[in-house]
């Protein structure tokens, strides 16, 4: 006979005792019961009715009015009572607590809870004592207000003490994780300081504002006509006065410090309004707005774009596609970054049009706001920067978050090395893997103190200020516009001449824009040099459309029968036009029309038609540095070409946002393309046949590795696919091309976006 024996896992705790059973206690009791985390749950509170109600609700097995009865044999005791009562209760229960019991609390201040425990135990605190603070609440209190999901997606802060045992901390993390909370550990002082600013000060301000208005003669009118924003803010003044009275005294030191900071900031704001200092007021309001819009992302170290612009997955269904229309792709990322950086250190005002409102450029903008620069916008691609001059940047309050942008981090390394203040730069997971020693090394030669504090010379980057920099002559070991630019930017502050010699020409946006800002830069062959100690003067910058973004549409049109696409005002900087040259060599029907100059950069309209099958070629090595970002898209073109395409001399592709050679090869193979990655390139067997426009790719699920260019390249394969293409991890498309799916759909490639 078969016996079906179900083993019930041992619960986390034998007996849990709650002292107090209000909103937090009864919510946690609901979690413990729902998840079967304890054999027995008991509670102690003075109100017999609360205990009866808790039993009726199934929250506790037994209720006691005396805490001594509740805590005996308990292996977890939770103090869920007003913080002012902590010492008295600890005094009562001390003789009856088991040695191996965990003792925790849920109060919103921690210093006074520890002080209460020390008053009872002296320095010999129990090893199971781990103070805690779930940051969750509701306007309602009492045992009936509890909710099993109160803590879901909320933070719980534990403040372990030097005396706290690891096993006790681990069990509490397990408990709170079962409540679906995010558990953070920090020290007691830090907790009280953080909470003073983020919770206690706003409550104090809300009570103060409502009191101020309640004392006015016309108070009824004020409250009657108050808009939703006032209601939202003042709602917190409806909280329990007794509780907040106790908190304000319990966390007195940290709250008074926060109030001082608020008063200082308010005085500054008052001064700006009184003196009608328009620039500074716009700067302060713009900085606050950007910080509010972005701080959740920055805290989470996630992309900046709000939810509606963030995508996780693209799907493209098979079927014959057209690809037509006239498009303006977003502004050039490289030029957008630099317009902010140079405008910030220039004298006077810089007005930028065509600014790319993608994540990377927004990260740069935020960094300069954090260093005290007044910036208006971006609004419809327009940004106004009120320059602070070469010596005007101020120390940021914390680390500068660069998001996904290698450009920002490498160029800023050069600028920050010359400042009077210390600084740290961090980035998201992708940026944190990218090599930074290649810029740190030459900067050290100039006298900078810079550390790449991640593993293997990767971010975060820490820079010590107040160093005297000297000009150097540096031979670049690899072709990198970012490293070249970082050195030249440090050279603006360095003594004497700084020069960089490149193995082959790379993008020259830095040199062109410095000249546009009135700074002399010499270019002799592959050597670029400047003399430190000059100044930049504010100017107007028109950012051209980004050829790297246009490349996807150029490839899309080149591989689609009967296509006709015009891309307007694209930057055709000679150091960036490799993609045009390579597509022409492959036989694309591509013309460059209406050439002109804008903001020191050449621009033109690019016209592509799908009239003939592309041919496989050995990509010319002299064009490789000029098309380094466009290769993922060109690999799609090569797969649709007739014959073999060979790429060599492109080892740099392996250290971009992803290893682009490997990732593209993996994706191409999934979709039925024969290709062989090599150390510095790839060999692709094209499946195209002259005059045959049928499907090339077999579809499949592609992992983009959160690399925007990979995601957009494989999207274009959807124009020639026989099965559905699914591309995972596409949210980073917003870094360089926030309107990509909108424009692609308008052209005729239907991309479905899903979370």
Describe this structure in words.
This protein has 755 residues and is an alpha/beta fold. The protein folds into 4 domains: 13-186, NAD(P)-binding Rossmann-like Domain (Rossmann fold), CATH 3.40.50.720; 194-276, 6-phosphogluconate dehydrogenase C-terminal fold (Orthogonal Bundle); 313-328 and 545-754, UDP-n-acetylglucosamine1-carboxyvinyl-transferase, Chain (Alpha-beta prism); 333-542, Enolpyruvate transferase domain (UDP-n-acetylglucosamine1-carboxyvinyl-transferase, Chain), CATH 3.65.10.10. The chain is built from 24 helices and 31 strands. A 5-stranded parallel β-sheet has the order 3-2-1-4-5. It has a 4-stranded mixed β-sheet with strand order 29-30-9-31. Strands 10-23-25-24 form a 4-stranded mixed β-sheet. Helix 4 (86-93) runs parallel beside helix 5 and helix 21 (631-639) runs parallel beside helix 22 (660-670). The longest helix is centred in the N-terminal third of the chain and has 27 residues, at 188-214.
Shape: globular
The unreliable regions are 1-5, 301-311
What structural class do the secondary elements suggest?
Answer: alpha/beta
Total helical segments:
24
**What is the share of helical residues?**
25-40%
Named CATH architecture of the largest domain = Alpha-beta prism
**Top CATH class of the largest domain:** Alpha Beta
The CATH homologous superfamily of the largest domain corresponds to: Enolpyruvate transferase domain
- What is the CATH topology of the largest domain? UDP-n-acetylglucosamine1-carboxyvinyl-transferase, Chain
- Give the terminus-to-terminus CA distance: 50 Å
Strand order of the largest sheet: 3-2-1-4-5
Strand content: 15-25%
State the total count of DSSP E strands. 31
Largest sheet, strands/sense/barrel:
5 strands, parallel
């Amino acid at each position: 006979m078969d016996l079906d024996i179900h083993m019930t896992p041992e619960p986390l705790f034998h007996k849990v005792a709650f002292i107090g059973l209000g909103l937090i206690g009864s919510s946690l009791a609901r979690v413990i019961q729902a998840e079967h985390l304890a054999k027995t749950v008991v509670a102690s509170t003075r109100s017999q009715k609360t205990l009866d109600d808790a039993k009726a609700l199934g929250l506790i097995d037994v209720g006691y009015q005396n805490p001594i009865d509740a805590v005996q044999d308990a292996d977890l005791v939770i103090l869920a009572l007003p913080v002012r009562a902590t010492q008295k209760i600890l005094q009562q229960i001390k003789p009856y607590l088991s040695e191996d019991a965990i003792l925790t609390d849920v109060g919103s201040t921690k210093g006074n809870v520890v002080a209460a425990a020390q008053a009872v135990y002296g320095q010999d605190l129990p090893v199971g004592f781990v103070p805690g603070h779930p940051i969750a609440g509701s306007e309602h209190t009492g045992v009936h207000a509890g909710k099993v999901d109160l803590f879901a997606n909320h933070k719980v802060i534990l403040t372990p003490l030097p005396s706290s045992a690891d096993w006790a901390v681990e069990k509490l993390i397990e408990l709170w994780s079962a409540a679906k909370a995010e558990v953070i550990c920090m020290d007691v002082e830090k907790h009280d300081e953080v909470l003073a600013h983020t919770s206690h000060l706003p409550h104090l301000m809300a009570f103060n504002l409502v009191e101020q208005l309640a004392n006015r003669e016309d108070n009824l009118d004020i409250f009657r006509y108050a808009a939703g924003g006032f209601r939202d803010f003042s709602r917190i003044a409806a909280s329990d006065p007794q509780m907040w009275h106790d908190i304000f005294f319990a966390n007195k030191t940290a709250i008074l410090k926060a109030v001082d900071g608020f008063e200082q900031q308010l005085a500054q704001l008052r001064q700006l309004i009184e003196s009608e200092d328009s620039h500074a007021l716009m700067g302060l309001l713009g900085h606050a707005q950007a910080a509010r819009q972005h701080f959740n992302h920055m805290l989470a170290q996630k992309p900046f774009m709000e939810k509606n612009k963030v995508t996780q997955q693209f799907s493209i269904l098979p079927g014959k596609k057209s690809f037509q229309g006239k498009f303006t792709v977003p502004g050039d990322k490289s030029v957008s970054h630099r317009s902010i950086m140079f405008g910030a250190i220039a004298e006077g005002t810089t007005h930028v049009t065509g600014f790319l409102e993608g994540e990377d450029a927004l990260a740069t903008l935020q960094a300069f706001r954090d260093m005290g620069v007044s910036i208006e916008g971006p609004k419809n691609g327009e940004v106004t920067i009120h320059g602070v001059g070469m010596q005007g940047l101020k120390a940021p309050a914390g680390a500068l978050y660069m998001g996904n942008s290698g450009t920002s981090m490498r160029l800023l390394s050069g600028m920050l090395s010359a400042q009077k203040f210390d600084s740290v730069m961090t980035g998201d997971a992708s940026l944190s893997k990218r090599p930074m020693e290649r810029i740190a090394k030459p900067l050290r030669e100039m006298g900078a103190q810079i550390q790449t504090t991640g593993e293997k010379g990767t971010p975060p980057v820490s820079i010590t200020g107040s160093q005297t920099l000297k000009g150097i002559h540096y031979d670049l070991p690899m072709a990198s516009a970012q490293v070249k630019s970082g050195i030249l930017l440090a050279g603006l502050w360095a003594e004497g001449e700084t020069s960089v010699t490149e193995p082959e020409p790379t993008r020259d946006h830095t040199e062109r824009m410095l000249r546009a800002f009135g700074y002399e830069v010499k270019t002799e062959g592959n050597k670029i040099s400047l003399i430190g100690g000059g100044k930049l003067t504010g100017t107007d910058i028109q950012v051209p459309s980004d050829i790297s973004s246009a490349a996807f549409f150029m490839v899309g049109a080149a591989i689609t029968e009967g296509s006709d696409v015009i891309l307007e005002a694209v930057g055709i900087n000679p150091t960036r036009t490799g993609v045009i040259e390579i597509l022409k060599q492959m036989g694309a029907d591509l013309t460059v029309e209406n050439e002109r100059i804008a903001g020191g950069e050449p621009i033109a309209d690019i016209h592509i038609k799908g009239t003939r099958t592309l041919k496989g070629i050995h990509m010319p090595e002299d064009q490789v540095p000029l098309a380094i970002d466009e290769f993922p898209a060109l690999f799609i073109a090569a797969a649709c070409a007739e014959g073999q395409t060979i790429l060599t001399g492109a080892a740099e592709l392996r250290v971009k946002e992803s290893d682009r050679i490997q990732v593209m090869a993996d994706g191409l193979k999934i979709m039925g393309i024969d290709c062989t990655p090599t150390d510095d390139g790839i060999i692709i067997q094209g499946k195209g046949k002259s005059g045959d426009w049928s499907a090339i790719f077999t579809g499949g699920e592609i992992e983009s590795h959160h690399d925007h260019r990979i995601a957009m390249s494989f999207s274009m394969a959807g124009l020639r696919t026989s099965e559905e293409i699914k591309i995972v991890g596409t949210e980073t498309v917003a870094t360089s091309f926030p309107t990509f799916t909108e424009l692609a759909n308008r052209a005729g490639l239907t991309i479905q976006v899903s979370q």
